[in-house]
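As a warm-up, study this chain.
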Amino acid sequence: VEEVGKLDQDAIEEVAAQAWPDVRGADDLHDALMTLIALPIDAASESSPLAARVAAIVPLWEPFFVELQRDRRAGRARVAGRELWVATECAATFGAAYPDAVWLDALPDLGIGAPSAGDALFAIVQGWLSHAGALAMPELAAMLGIATSDLDAAVLRLEASGWALRGRFRTSLPADVMQWCERRLLARIHRLTIGTLRREIEPVTAAGFMRWLLAWQHAEPGARATGEHGTLEVLRQLQGFEAPASAWERHLLPQRIAGYDPDELDRLCLGGVVGWGRLSPHPATLEPVGDDRRRVAPTSVAPITFFAREDADWMAPRHPAPGDLPARLSQTARDVLHLLHRHGASFFPDLVRTSKHVTAEVEAALWELVAAGLVTADGFDNLRALIDPSRRTASPRASRRSRHAAGRWALLHAGTDDVDRQRTIESACWMLLRRYGVVFRELLARESNFPVWRDLLIAFRRLEDRGEVRGGRFVSAFIGEQFALPIAVDSLRAMRHRPPTGEIVTVAAADPLNLAGIIVPGERVAANSGRVVGFRDGHCVADSATVLQAGGVGVNGGQ
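Now compare it with the structure written out below.
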């Protein structure tokens, strides 16, 4: 079991103590014996915690047993030198489980038929699990004097019925010893564990969280990623967040990757590791079909995002059906879109040849389709060729690369109509956790590609119930539930001991870290404003001029 999934050992002991029979008189003891079937009174010879509990409680119960014995409601039996207490009503079941038992007390015959040996062992295991919490069959077998293999067969029947669950709950037992627990008691242990985990960390201030978040997202100079592996890590963290196409390589990636190399991004794209495209619907596509006043226009500030292909379950089409779009597109864009629907992924020269449009028209059409969120390409250099005017006009001062980069153009959402909604929402939860470490409702203020918070909240609670994430109060001053990655909780706790540096870290307005006025007090700065936002030890600096005068670092990797 991973660390986050481990049950709190004190919670296991607390629930076991709660579930143990509360015997205050003879009738209470009789009820306990009816459930346990067999209670050994010399369990002190065994070394397990359960045996120690039984050995400690038997002397306290003995006066009540004497009363039951006098009324012939219970008696004693001996098995292989071991003495056990048995309720009269359970004598037949006990005899089926212990065919060699010698009765020390004569019990009345109640006319109860003896069950099979398997059913008798089933009743014994069920009774002990309902009172003892998490148990391993070897320790129960040693205490009761029954072969472990016989108890294993009984507990497997309980598992098949859904009554008992297996796992490694108590860390005091060897890791290779399987343990069992009644489903009801396990749920109670889990609730107590969650409560303990939620109380473990004292919430940090909003400024403390903002300061930590700059390092978590590699935006601080000392926390920047490096190399192709670092580029992939940054893209995984930022996937799903839409920023202007021209801002990614100008601001966002150099902010987080030391010595950012565009070739590393190209290799990741051409290798099929990551992809890119616009996911939010273009405003023009949301207007009534009969209203042709607004069309999709190519622009370098069209919002796009990246996605890691192997964990892109969060992606779901949010655009109108293709049949509703032609009124918003130019004729050339419609022709190119039709070709991609009919032929699939195509190289740029093939699109030019089959569309019978000139090169410049196909370029403009592709840029229009990118802005509409309908197409993507194998490589990111395909998009650079559209963003960079010198690449489009092939001027003498253009990039040394070819005018049209390697890679094919394709539909962005081809074949994604059949979506598992629960899987999509859980994937979105994981994406938010990777981006922010700690997630609460306010952090979604600048996110545009997510389900509503209500749906995310249900999924986060499910992940917490499975022990995969932590729930609690991690950042103060925000109401509602908060959820975090376990590693983020540890990192956030360690941040408390980091002294202030006084350094100003700047981010572009289009950056997801532009959380001024959302997480920390300050003026909200629009993503398309072209301004920068500065943070000093998590506190927002007043404005761009103040940032630049103070020598803030961050944007474009420098001052």
